[in-house]
Design a protein that fits this description.
- The complex is a heterodimer of chains A (110) and B (115).
- Chain A is mostly beta strands.
- Chain A contains no helices and eleven strands.
- In chain A, a hairpin with a 5-residue loop joins strand 9 and strand 10.
- Chain B is mainly beta and 115 residues long.
- In chain B, strand 7 (64-70) and strand 8 (73-79) form a beta hairpin.
- The chains are: A mainly beta (110), B mainly beta (115).
- Chain A binds chain B through residues 8, 32, 34, 36, 41-46, 49, 51, 88, 92, 95-98, 100-103, and chain B through 2, 4, 6, 40-43, 45, 48, 56, 88, 90, 97-100, 102-109, 111.
């Protein structure tokens, strides 16, 4: 079992839709969770960083962590074609190394 | 400013060539990382430098040789690579190697092709 599981997609939605991206993780000791956005042939860009459970909002993006079910989500409101990218969830192990999910490809259709 | 820069953007090299990738950050970060990313896969950690000392080597073949000349610079020296080493090589940095706020910021990457 991978430590972080993520549906690779692709996920195709119309412009303006609410997008929900999800990951599950296996180790209940994980406490720090990140979402990175990666455009084709570019480096990952840090979008959101959360600690423990709860929600964190930044503009159109909301990151949610549910530690009881080991589930992390990223919601994108009013999605735009410019949001089309691969979204990587990540967490840190006990030595603070990043553990990535496999990434979900998102396509927002105009 | 959360910028990590990498040069070159693209590199094509033969299996007998020697080349170097360069990474620079001016955020005062004391940890720097090299990752390798193949198409449609997440980044894989190769090396970690903490306070200019190599702290993690993820069993990377010796044809990859990292170097950290100072706290702002990170190099990756390449020699006798194989075609399967073709990938996007990413540099990242963070405040320190470890800690609750130790988020990593990535550069744009160098796309390497080995012929």
């Amino acid at each position: 079992q991978k430590e972080v599981e993520q549906d690779p997609g692709p996920l195709s939605v119309p412009e303006g839709a609410i997008v929900s991206l999800n990951c599950t993780y296996s180790n209940s000791a994980f406490q720090y969770f990140m979402w990175y956005r990666q455009y084709s042939r570019k480096g990952p860009e840090l979008l959101m960083y959360t600690y423990s459970s709860g929600n964190k909002e930044d503009g159109r993006f909301t990151a949610q962590v549910d530690k009881s079910s080991k589930y992390i989500s990223l919601f994108i409101r009013d999605s735009q074609p410019s949001d089309s990218a691969t979204y990587l969830c990540a967490t840190m192990d006990s030595s603070y190394k990043l553990i990535f999910g496999s990434g979900t490809r998102l396509l927002v259709r105009p | 400013d959360t910028e990590v820069t990498q040069t070159p953007k693209h590199l094509v090299m033969g299996m007998t060539n020697k080349k170097s990738l360069k990474c620079e950050q001016h955020m005062g970060h004391r940890a720097m990382y090299w990752y390798k990313q193949k198409a449609k896969k997440p980044p894989e950690l190769m090396f970690v430098y903490s306070y200019e000392k190599l702290s993690i080597n993820e069993s990377v073949p010796s044809r990859f040789s990292p170097e950290c000349p100072n706290s702002s610079l990170l190099n990756l020296h390449l020699h006798a690579l194989q075609p399967e080493d073709s990938a996007l090589y990413l540099c990242a940095s963070s405040q320190v190697d470890g800690g609750s706020t130790d988020t990593q910021y990535f550069g744009p990457g160098t796309r390497l092709t080995v012929l």
